[in-house]
Amino acid sequence: MKTLQVNKAHYPVTVLGPGKRIGIWLQGCTIRCRGCVSQDTWEPDPGRAMKIADLLAWCRLAAENEFDGVTLSGGEPFDQPQGLRELLKGLHAWRKQSGMAFDILCYSGYPLATLQQRHAKLLTLLDAVIPEPYADGLPLGNVWRGSANQALVPLSEAGRARYAPYLDAAAAGKRIQMTVENKRIWLIGIPERDEMAQLEALCRSRGLTLEQVSWRR
Ligand code: SF4
User: Fold this and answer.
1) Is 162 helix (H, G, I), strand (E, B) or coil?
2) Residue of 8, 59, 47 whose CA lies nearest to 186
3) HSE (CB half, 13 Å, CA atoms) of 157?
4) Is the pLDDT of residue 1 over 80?
5) From the CB of residue 29, how many other CB atoms can be counted at a distance below 10 Å?
6) Ligand 1 in reach of 217 Cβ (< 6 A)
């Protein structure tokens, strides 16, 4: 049985890649960048293992064929290479069978050279990757990137066509979206530096204490 440890899946995601997207955040990250806002994804958790067939079925149901792409993030997707491969193969099969032109974008905290060395075959199943660890000390990067060291790297012909306008584009418009699910508030996207601390301070000033925040352990 093929599984992946999944932190969360959401549709529609509109702040991590072009258009209306399916977002999948994987569980487990060995990289552990200082200042990561997704520290809830760090610990591997077998309790979050999901059958890849079920994950794909959820994608089909949630997006109802009305979406532009799939964004994979985490956690570190490449820390689960076998499951990631199966998911990507499933997405490719869906794309081929449906005739849809959705793209597949993946975030990774590994440098591009490491991915090319260790996961060259997986890269062939992606349309674009945003690699390199998050660097807290650098300014925010271009659109969809958390720090200025992170490039947007198209990997396929379709990826080159779709992502060409965004390679050096500055972030513009909405950067964060919010959703409430299972009595929890989820913030999706790339916050400005200190934005989470400002949010907490503002909430505190109104008598509200945020608990179990993902940007602190
Ligand atoms: S920013 Fe990404 S790679 Fe870095 S610790 Fe957080 S989840 Fe892991």
Assistant:
1) helix
2) 8
3) 1
4) no
5) 23
6) no
Task: Copy the structure tokens of residue 192.
Answer: 């400005």
**169: which 2 tokens?**
């584009």
In a 3-state reduction of DSSP, which class is residue 46?
helix
Structure token digits, residue 65: 């064929």
User: What is the pLDDT confidence band of residue 182, given thresholds at 50, 70 and 90?
Assistant: confident
Give the pLDDT score at 174. Answer: 87
Task: Kindly state if the Cβ of 36 falls inside 6 Å of ligand 1.
Answer: yes
The tokens for 93 are: 């099969």
Structure tokens at 136: 């807290």
The CB-side HSE value for 200 (13 A sphere, CA atoms) comes to: 12
Residue 144, both tokens? 């969809």
Element (H, E) at 176: strand 176-181
Q: Measuring from atom 4 of ligand 1, which residue has the nearest CA?
A: 33
Output the six-digit token pair for 55. 């994950």
- Residue 109, phi then psi, degrees to nearest 5: -90, 0
Question: pLDDT tens digit string along 100-151?
Answer: 999 999 999 999 999 999 999 999 999 999 999 999 999 998 999 999 999 9
